[in-house]
Amino acid sequence: MKKIIVFFLLSGWNSFSQTELVTNTVIAGVKVNNKIVFMGNSPNFGKELWVSDGTAAGTNILRDINVGSGDSTPHLLTLLDDVVYFRANSHDIWRTDGTSGGTYYMTNNNLIISPTNFVKTQNFIFFISNSRLWRMNTNPNSENLVTISSNLVDVKGLIVLDYNSDVIMFNAKTNIGWAIWRSNGGVSLMVKDLYTLNLDVLQMNAARKIGSEIYFSGFSTDFGGEPWKTDGTLTNTVMIKDIMVDANYFNSPGASQFTKVGSKVFFVARDNFHGYELWVTDGTASGTNMVKEIYPGNNNGFSPGFLLERDGLLYFTAFDVSGVVNIWKSDGTSSGTIKVTTNPDNNVLGPLTKINNIIYFSMHSPTHGNEPCKMDLNNVITMIQDLIPGTQGSDSNFFYELNNETYFIANNNISLSGQATYKIVNNILSNADSDFNALTSIFPNPTNGIINLQIKNILDFQIEIFDIIGKKVGQFKNQNQVDISNYNSGIYSMKITDLITNSQSTQKIIKQ
User: Fold this and answer.
1) For the segment 195-221, what is each residue's pLDDT rounded down to a tens digit?
2) How far apart are CA 287 and CA 504, in angstroms?
3) CA nearest 453: which of 473, 438, 435, 436?
4) For the whole prediction, is pTM greater than 0.90?
5) Domains in the chain, start-ordered, CATH in brackets?
6) DSSP string spanning 173-237?
């Protein structure tokens, strides 16, 4: 089989994949049953619930809840099992499975005000309304107030502890202050009061369920903010380690971003001598240590972020001595914590999103601005496409998978509508593809009209040119020079196909 190696003439990054503009509608919501449901906005319907299958034709309003041009403003879309629950018209709770018949209201109760924090157990959906805990079943008009205490003032931060037993945990405030509570929708009890001086501070923050326990940043009387864990019992609600030892415990900032990787739990914290750094724990004080000092000195302005597990390692972003934000990886040891990206001029903007084990993110460079990028299994960084040529950048964000395709949101310089939805095409291309691609070079790029092609080892090939929305605008065969001087200025894709082996290479061309 012939080999194809594609040379791209963009400076700074390789740019292998290409994108396809799907629609100027921003499809950014929640995936359910192979569809995306989201809040769309249109002149005829206002802000309402929309649905998309990833195509322009399949992107439509799902339900005009506030009939006419008024807004129902569906938001707080939360996937619970195979159903999305959300708030509409400020106070109503609705649900959808992505179909018209599966979209209907759950509550229409004057006592429910601004419901939030939907979580689901086996038998109940819990939520907070008007500083009270509520529960409902999966059928409409089944809501009930959960009685916690006659002295209840407020409830915040619901998290599921045991799905099968309907047990949730949360912060509850009574007339004696905040404490950590649990409930199964019937019986509610206080688990532990970490801070006994009636300070108006939540005691359980940044909580994340890991195994049979909840790891959280706890605020206590003696230690301030530190990493804690709980299994829902008084005995086993314990501080993991006193990391910031200070007589003024308000200087203890707590922990965040708890992320499980194998048997370890990573998190971000600050001790007495370092700024915010990456830590790791096995759940014991002796097994809790700072992984590595990435930014030297006691600096509190630079925190590792976007912690993500892939193939038994932790990937994250961090600002280091290079002066930019890079991607790092860690196995939990100092020697095994290594910088992945090394370009001194490029900042990884995050967040890091893993789709089919590929990590997607936005990266900023002085040459291209903020553009969509990916990191393959070999940690090779590739710019997906320079959507807006020059330093302006497309400000790409919100990567997601739908029906085995990868989508993201970015600014669109072709349209005046602002942000748009893009799909990544030719997304399987990686280092391994060089084993079956032909040697191809295209120049000049950008071009005023004439494109020269240097193609080796291909005897019979086809050239296809597509515009920014994927429409084919030109086709040529076995030509080493292509004239596009009659094309409008803009961005095009050129696909070269070996007609004998059916191998292909695609790259962006810019018509000035």
Assistant:
1) 988 788 999 999 999 999 999 999 999
2) 51
3) 438
4) no
5) 1-16+432-512 (2.60.40.3080)
6) EETTEEEEEEE-SS-EEEEE-S--S--S--SEEEEEEETTEEEEEEEETTTEEEEEEESSSSTT-
